Amino acid sequence: MGFPQFVARKLARSMAKDDAELKHGQKLPDGVTVTEYAYLDDGHAMHRLNVCRPEGAAGVLPLIVDIHGGAWVFGDKDLNLNLCMHLAKRGYVVAAPSYRLVPEVTLDGQVKDVFAALDFISKHAHEWGADASEAMLTGDSAGGHLSSLALCISLSSSLAKAYGVTPPTLGVKCLAMSHPVPEVHSILRDENDEPSRKFKVIQRIFDGAMFGKRPRKHPLYLLSAFSEYSEGLHLPPTMLIGCERDVYVKHSRYVARLLRAKEERGECDRFVFRYTDAAHEKTRLCHVYEVMDPTLPDSVATLDDMVKFFEESRDRT
């Protein structure tokens, strides 16, 4: 095991401890059923997904697909279970897959898992009373990167070929990225939200974990950052969620600039940046606050705005 892989495993252990402390005493909402499925029949623990549906809801419901975060090295389908159940209570079927983590796989392996899950969801959504033609794709942090990457791959035959995947038959009406970290070639950024030149060693370690040996020679290296894989593509309505105290807020602000420019060029149907500055937060907010605690007043307002954006996006088509 190389040094980047060692660092990835150490980071995952640290995040696991923090997650256990967060979930201690956390109460999941009632009124939601949660069913687990294997989306690949290979026995791998990470090839499973949760499906949440509000109890007593009649008829076919719109679908939300949530890709969890965890710095690409940590987490599974249960990391966002509390969030997904709160979204389901608002009248949706929510599907949330696990995917293999770095360093077991590199980025391309994670993308293949996400697409295997999306394919399973598109084929079985009707069994859960969900409409696969009315879907919102969402993800937080690293999941914001993977969800936007999956969307763009679905919109581009050349990207799909490069990643070796087949786009599913999901009707994605909108994308919602929460506190995403999608500029993977420059994880740490300067005061102008631009790539920082001060942390080259940290970036090299990250690149080695995400792309393996000689990362810049990896065929997907230059197709892995949002500014690269979204180039020239026409995006559906896109919401970006961020807050001033987010440790990765510079990514949110940078991606907001890119999306505003795409909207101005007619390459994005609609763009909304839901940004909360420190002066207007009801409680002290942090990275992926609505995932950490969906019951905070700010979290409730954010989730309400997210599903409102989904409904407005559905109405536009």
Number of domains: 1
Helix content: 25-40%
The name of the CATH superfamily reads: Alpha/Beta hydrolase fold, catalytic domain
What structural class is derived from the secondary structure elements? alpha/beta
Order of helices and strands: HEEEHEHEHHEHHEHEHH
Q: What does the overall shape look like?
A: globular
Number of strands: 8
What's the number of helices? Answer: 10
CATH secondary-structure class: Alpha Beta
Gyration radius, in Å: 18 Å
Describe this structure in words.
This protein has helices at 3-23, 81-89, 107-124, 142-155, 157-163, 200-211, 226-229, 249-264, 289-292, 297-316, and strands spanning 32-38, 48-54, 61-67, 93-97, 130-140, 172-178, 238-243, 271-276. It has an 8-stranded mixed sheet with strand order 1-2-4-3-5-6-7-8, sandwiched between helices. With 317 residues, the chain is of the alpha/beta class. The protein is globular. α1 crosses α6 and α4 packs across α5. The chain contains 10 helices and 8 strands. The termini are far apart. The model has no long low-confidence stretch (mean pLDDT 96). α2 links the parallel β3 (61-67) and β4 (93-97). It is 39% helix and 18% strand. It has a single domain, classed as Alpha/Beta hydrolase fold, catalytic domain (Rossmann fold), CATH 3.40.50.
Question: Can you give me a brief rundown of this structure?
Answer:
The protein is an alpha/beta fold and 317 residues long.
